[in-house]
Amino acid sequence: xxxxxxxxxxxxxxxxxxxxxxxxxxxxxxxxxxxxxxxxxxxxxxxxxxxxxxxxxxxxxxxxxxxxxxxxxxxxxxxxxxxxxxxxxxxxxxxxxxxxxxxxxxxxxxxxxxxxxxxxxxxxxxxxxxxxxxxxxxxxxxxxxxxxxxxxxxxxxxxxxxxxxxxxxxxxxx
Length: 174
Description:
The chain is about 60% helix and about 0% strand. The protein has 6 helices and no strands. Helix 3 runs antiparallel to helix 4 (about 100-115) and helix 3 (about 75-95) runs antiparallel to helix 6 (about 145-165). Keywords: Membrane, Transmembrane, Transmembrane helix. This is HPP family protein. Pfam families: TM_HPP.
C-alpha cells in the first residue's frame, strides 16, 4: 500500500461534503428534555440510595437515545445489549488480569467485536470496559448501574420520544 499515492490513502480523507445533520429546534428541545429527565432520575436514585445508578457513558447514551432516536445504534437492543456485553467483558478481564494497559485495550477491542457480532453495537458502551477496569468494579456493577440504568434510559426514551407524533421509538426491537 502506497500511502503517498494522491489518489489513494490521503485522498480518502478529502471531502467537499457537508454535515447531513439537520437543525430542528423542536428535536433539540425534546432531546435536551429526555437527557435531562434520564440523567436526573439516575442521579436522584444515586443520591437516594447507597448504590451507584449512573456512569459517565450514560450521558453519551442519552445523546443517541434522545438526539438520534431513529438511528440503529440508538435502539433498545443496542443500548441495553451493548452496555451489558461491554461491561461483562470489562468485568471478566479485570477480575482475571487486573488493570494493565493491555487488559484495557483487549477488553475494549473484544467488546467492540462482540457488539458487532451480536448486532448490539452502541458506541457509548465501548467505554464500559474502561470504566469497569479503572474503577475496579465488582460483579454487581453489571446490574447496578449498567442493567438497571440502561433499562431506565430506554424506558424514558420510549415515553419521551413517542410524545412527539413525528417520532417513532423504537424503530426495531430485535
